[in-house]
Design brief:
The protein is α/β, with parallel strands linked by helices. The chain is built from 9 helices and 5 strands. It is globular, with a radius of gyration of 17 Å.
Length: 197
C-alpha cells in the first residue's frame, strides 16, 4: 500500500527546500508547480485556453508563456486569478491524481505530493497525511522579496492570495519549522522520515 503525503505551506515557506531533502533520500515526489508548467507547454490545450482568456500579450515571441507577465496580472487582480484558476486547476488536478494513482498501482511505499494550494484547492482528502512547512510572516516576506526580487507591496499581495500559514498549521498532521537554518530544517525532515518508517 502506498502512503501518500501532502506537502504544503505558503508561498516561499520552504516546500521546494524540503522537497530537495526528500529527493536526496530517493523519495518519489509529485510537484504541482512542475505539473502546472507541463499543462501550459507550447501549443497545449491549457495555453490555448489562457490565450483566449488573457490575449496574446501573455506569450513571448517564441510562443511560450510569459510567466512573469501572467504572474503580474494574476497576483494583483483577483478576477484574473479566478479565471486562471478555473482554467488550470482542473488540468493540474487531473494530472496529479492520475500520477498518484499510477504510483499506488505500482505499490510504491511512499509518495510525496508537493501542492502549494493543497487546502485552498481541496486536496486534503486525497492524501493520507499532511505536512506543513511553516515560517513566520516576517521571514516569509523577506525570503519572497529576496528570491523573486519583489517590492514589499508586491510580495505582500502574493502572500495575500493564499490562506494564512497559521490556518494551515492547525490542519497539519506534522509541522516543519523552517524559520531556522536549512540544516535545522533538514534535521526535522529526517526525524519525521524516521518516525514514518
Ligand atoms: C502565474 C504563474 C504563471 C507564475 O509563474 P512563476 O514561474 O512566476 O511562479 P511559480 O509557478 O514558480 O509559482 C510560485 C508560487 O506561487 C504560488 N502560486 C502559483 N499560482 C498561484 C495561484 N493561482 N494562487 C495563489 N498562489 C499561487 C505558489 O505558492 C507557487 O509555489 C504560475 O504560478 C501559474 O501558472 N499559476 C497557476 C497554477 C497554480 O495555481 N499553481 C499552483 C499549484 S497548485
Ligand atoms: N531555512 C532557510 N534559510 C534560509 N533561506 C531559506 C530557508 N529555506 C528556504 N530558503 C530560501 O527561501 C526561498 C523560498 O524557499 P522555497 O523556494 O523552498 O519555498 P517554496 O515554499 O517552495 O516557494 P513557492 O511557494 O514559491 O514555490 C528560497 O530562496 C530558499 O532558498
Amino acid at each position: 500500500m502506498t502512503k501518500v503525503i501532502g506537502l504544503t505551506g505558503s508561498i516561499a515557506s520552504g516546500k521546494s527546500t524540503v522537497s530537495e531533502f526528500l529527493k536526496a533520500q530517493h523519495i518519489p515526489l509529485l510537484d504541482a508547480d512542475v505539473i502546472a508548467r507541463e499543462v501550459v507547454e507550447k501549443e497545449s490545450e491549457g495555453l490555448q485556453k489562457l490565450v483566449l482568456a488573457f490575449g496574446k500579450e501573455i506569450l513571448q515571441a517564441d510562443g511560450t508563456l510569459n510567466r512573469k507577465k501572467l504572474g503580474q496580472l494574476i497576483f494583483n487582480q483577483e478576477e484574473k486569478r479566478k479565471t486562471l484558476n478555473q482554467i488550470l486547476h482542473p488540468l493540474i488536478r487531473e494530472a496529479m491524481l492520475r500520477k498518484r494513482d499510477e504510483a499506488k498501482a505500482q505499490n510504491i511505499p511512499l509518495l510525496v505530493m508537493d501542492i502549494p494550494l493543497l487546502f485552498e484547492t481541496n486536496y486534503a482528502d486525497e492524501v493520507d497525511e499532511i505536512v506543513v512547512v511553516a515560517v513566520s510572516p516576517t521571514v516569509q516576506l523577506q525570503r519572497l522579496m529576496d528570491r523573486n526580487q519583489l517590492s514589499q507591496a508586491e510580495a505582500t499581495a502574493r502572500i495575500a492570495t493564499q490562506w494564512p500559514i497559521t490556518q494551515k498549521m492547525v490542519l497539519a498532521d506534522v509541522v516543519i519549522d523552517n524559520n531556522g537554518t536549512k540544516e535545522e530544517t533538514r534535521e526535522q525532515v529526517e526525524a519525521w522520515l524516521k518516525k514514518l518508517s
